[in-house]
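Hi there, hope your week has been kind to you so far. Thanks so much in advance, here it is.
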Amino acid sequence: MADRARERFTRVFADHHRAVLGYLLRRADEHDAQDALSETFLVVWRRLDAVPADDPLPWLIGVARNVLNNQRRSAVRREALRERVMAHAVPAHHDPAPAPDGAVISALRLLGERDREVLMLHAWEDLSAAQIAQVIGGTAAGARLRLHRARRRLVQALEEVTR
């Protein structure tokens, strides 16, 4: 039975994906159209028994239309949420950290990913050791230890870079 369903889905996709994509491209940009095409055929797979056997294209276009409408509603909701969040955002109590100079960037590149991560979380994101522990998973003591070791390695790397 699963083989028959797979064969039917493959046939429906092969016969109609270009027509559905054309419909979508006439109504959305390429990225959104490709996303909608994928979502449309996901619906087809999930509801294969509902796809008309004799002429599936109108049904497929109806699904694609609904998918596009859902994408657009989601985009409107995301934008409205972003605007609400921005309206209530509290400005930082201090200016962001100044951009590091070339030596610091070069020294950071010499460090391992784990050291860079903990240093940037502390210095650039202004997180405490307890907050860093929440981000990376672990204890505050472990984060303090990682931060301490990363600072030592950064100092060594800075000495190498500035020689």
Q: What stands out?
A: Helices lie at 2-25, 30-46, 57-88, 102-110, 113-123, 129-136, 140-161. The mean pLDDT is 87. The two ends are 71 Å apart (CA to CA).
